Amino acid sequence: MYGDEATIRRILTELGDTWAVVGLSTNPDRAAYAVARVLQRFGKRIVPVHPKAETVHGERGYASLADIPFDVDVVDVFVNGELAGAVADDAVARGAKAVWFQLGVVDEAAFERTRDAGLEMVMDRCPAIEIPLLGQTVSPHSHN
Predict the structure, then answer these.
(1) CB 91 within 8 A of CB 99
(2) In the sheet where 120-122 sits, what is the strand order?
(3) Digit-coded pLDDT (tens) for 31-58
(4) Which positions ≥6 away from 22 have C-beta within 8 Å?
(5) Does the model's pTM come out above 0.85?
(6) Domain 5-133 classified CATH 3.40.50.720?
């Protein structure tokens, strides 16, 4: 309901290759760590966003979305539902093209606000699960 297949495909293949991963730290036990690696293997540039601003998977981290000094295409949100709406609002404010709330992260009001602002949005889904479902016909651009 919060992400039809066409929207998911568009976000993963058409909207750009720079993904800010909010909640990503160097903790390998967190889902964000593994999902960010999958995104990298799919040709995306990941940008860790976490209060500690740690370097993860070779990419410099930033404490907030506002601190990133370059354009971000997609904001992938790995924070709990109470905080996710504010992150979506920050993504709109900084001009992202899409917001992706991970599995278990649902905020219907934020979904409506983000869509009303003209961004694509998916909630309660995981790109690491969706990428293999795209099939072999998809060949994303790689920045490497």
Answers:
(1) yes
(2) 45-49, 18-22, 74-77, 98-101, 120-122
(3) 999 999 999 999 999 999 999 999 999 9
(4) 49, 50, 65, 75, 76, 77, 78, 79, 87
(5) yes
(6) yes
